Amino acid sequence: MTRPTPEVLAHRAHPTPPPAAASTATPATVAAEKVAKPAGRPAEELLTGAQILVRSFEQLGADVVFGIPGGAILPAYDPLFDSEAVRHILVRHEQGAGHAATGYAQATGKVGVCMATSGPGATNLVTPIADAYMDSVGIVAITGQVSSASIGTDAFQEADIAGITLPITKHNYLVKSGEELPRILMEAFHLASSGRPGPVLVDIPKDVLQKQTTFKWPPTMELPGYHPTLHPHGKQIREAARLITNAKRPVLYVGGGVIKARASEVLRKLAELTGAPVVTTLMARGAFPDSHPQHMGMPGMHGSVGAVYALQKADLLIALGARFDDRVTGELATFAPNAQVVHADIDPAEIGKNRVADVPIVGDAKHVIEELIAAVTAEHNAGRKPGLTDWWATLDDIRVRYPLGYEEPADGTLSPQYVIERIGAIVGPDAIYTAGVGQHQMWAAQFVKYEHPATWLNSGGLGTMGYAVPAAMGAKVGRPDKTVWAIDGDGCFQMTNQELATCALEGIPIKVAVINNGNLGMVRQWQTLFYDERYSNTELGTHKHRIPDFVKLADALGCVGLRCENKQDVDATIEAAMRVTDQPVVVDFVVGKDAMVWPMVAAGTSNDEIMFARGVAPTFDKDDI
């Protein structure tokens, strides 16, 4: 089994947010410092590997595990039955366990934990592991493995899950003995929750779980090559500050790393200090308040015209925790052609990967922003403060002329954008919203107003259909004080809605808005625009045949089912859903099938070719800047 070298680990370093805003400690380091000798227990005990696994969970603060038992992992479930500190939530599919762990981690900032047996149980975790890897979410996946002597023999339910997940984990382990299990688990939690966050897999053979060995706590971590850079280089900060104060058209290009670093408060201070416009990527919605006058919105394929325009016309991009994703840049060679780039990221592998950085800065986003504030303040005190009046006059004109909006369907059907807009308005910005992938995801990003970080959870990098329901479940478990809405499509919903049975039985009262247009909406939109309206295999039958009937399905899964088909009933239906607090709720919003997401930059084209509506491009004066 090939294992990454310490050098590779250092290069791939994927850090997470600290457990407390004022601390840089990870769950593993906190455990090492605070629980060297658990009260009432000896420092050493003779335990099975399974007991060591559960005891380590307790020491590391893993209070929730999402999983399904099976043969190879079954020994772990016996001591788990007796644990008062660790709650196990029995999901209906391992994919649900993985996405629930991700939703839990995104909503709380803690490490999410999922568990599965060997073979198909483990391979069912591959999609959520890849999803967490793409979006830099700290989860630990525990998988059972066939007994050590059977590894490599094609034994029943054997799969080389460590090999399978090597490209999509921050690191993974095949445990050889019970003695090393505490160290490996502490390292796994530390790796998942430090530097750039990411998934870590721990594969444990059945005999290791069954055999007794000595349990010692705390263990000593052995990660000699893993040293994430948290604090940026002072020279790079000063150079970035110089560029910021000399720029005439700066833009703060904010990515999900700002939320991971819990840097929203200092981001606002930097924005107000510099006066620069702010754009927040799909993964960064909520990092900067939508209500703030400097917020230009979301950039990219379905971003606001103002945000896309600001990036294209900028003379300086200050990229903070963003990775120049293709959905933001469009055709890379034409992206922000006249801009210098300050690129700050905790992962050095991201800097220069897609766009050359004039000032590369490696460091945690919160520390970078704090030091930029000090350096820019020093520039201002020295009399170097730019005037951005003309830049803002242009941007204000653009966003007034091209606001986000939509047209009511000509056939009188219910507008999906209106439904989502009303959910956001009635439920409010303090709730947590999750989304699947497709049109409803983009509308949720556009028409719900986000004021706080960690209130918008979605699958941005991998684009995983079926993410919304289990992620909402995980988020609600982690933040039971929050109202949690999953905004899902009728296609996405049918991939993982079985987890509503989990929610009903476990007392997890999430709310699901199914935006039911009877089709795979985003694929249909592309067929409309690029395939001469040849709708090959995109009609789902949820309109024509009402298969399934989502209200009946909700009832069968132990939920309250509601349906809304008319604009005049939307508010009352949402309010009825909000009044149910002791059961999951599913609302079938039957909407028109022809609505499209606008604006749009077609895949592979330049952001300069953004379409405001079908066949309508914004008109810009080439001399307006």
Question: How would you characterize this protein structure?
Answer:
The chain is of the alpha/beta class and 625 residues long. The chain has three domains: 211 residues, Thiamin diphosphate (ThDP)-binding fold, Pyr/PP domains (Rossmann fold), CATH 3.40.50; 168 residues, 3-Layer(aba) Sandwich (Rossmann fold); 175 residues, 3-Layer(aba) Sandwich (Rossmann fold). The chain is built from 25 helices and 20 strands. A six-stranded parallel β-sheet has the order 3-2-4-5-7-6, sandwiched between helices. A six-stranded parallel β-sheet has the order 11-10-9-12-13-14, sandwiched between helices. It has a six-stranded parallel β-sheet with strand order 16-15-17-18-20-19, sandwiched between helices. The longest helix has 17 residues. The protein starts with 5 loop residues before the first helix and ends in a 35-residue tail after the last strand. The N terminus is likely disordered. Pathway: Amino-acid biosynthesis; L-isoleucine biosynthesis; L-isoleucine from 2-oxobutanoate: step 1/4; Amino-acid biosynthesis; L-valine biosynthesis; L-valine from pyruvate: step 1/4.
